[in-house]
Amino acid sequence: MPLELIMQSQQSVALELLEQSLNSYLNSLKITQIVSLILIDDAQMKEFNLRDRGIDKSTDVLSYPLFEPDDIDMPKIEQLGDVFISLETAQKQAIEHKHSLEDEVLVLAAHGITHLRGFDHDSPENWQIFLSEQKIVLEHKNAI
Question: What is the largest CA-CA distance in the chain?
Fold first, then answer.
């Protein structure tokens, strides 16, 4: 399966549901490379955000691709990249959005995976790609 799920948070979340939903989603995208989804807390996320983006606060999701999408000379690797999600921030956002923590994590995971696939939300048109992918991942959860 293309998903590697790593739990580094004390927060409770339905890991099996996340794994099944995200593997279904990744398979539908024909992604065969491994995507690591690492679930962390706000303190860890704040460290990454400060180190990598110069922002001294937590955020919901950070993506780290292991390749450059436009680099045709780079040999094929088995891992697409890493997606880090703060479960503490995800829980707050789930409450704001009036849905489950699992739905919020799936939305954030789809967001991160879309970045790993080489997309950025630097225009309204590109933002629509992210919104579409977030809806699609929830459809995969609902089909389970």
Answer: 45
Domain 3-142: homologous superfamily in CATH: Metalloproteases ("zincins"), catalytic domain (3.40.390.30)
Condensed to tens digits (0 to 9), the pLDDT of residues 55-96 reads 999 999 999 998 765 666 766 778 999 999 999 999 999 999
Q: Are 85 and 103 in contact (CB under 8 A)?
A: no
Write the pLDDT tens digit of every residue in 85-116. 999 999 999 999 999 999 999 999 999 999 99
Query: Among 55, 67, 15, which residue's Cα sits nearest to residue 39?
Result: 15
For residue 3, what is the enclosing H or E element?
A: strand 3-7
One-letter amino acid for residue 100 of the chain: S
pLDDT tens profile 115-141: 999 999 999 999 999 999 999 999 999
How are strands ordered across the β-sheet holding 34-40? 3-7, 34-40, 79-86, 61-65
Question: Full-prediction pTM beyond 0.90?
Answer: yes
Q: Do 21 and 108 meet the contact criterion of CB atoms below 8 Å apart? A: no
**Tally of CB atoms within 10 A around 26:** 23
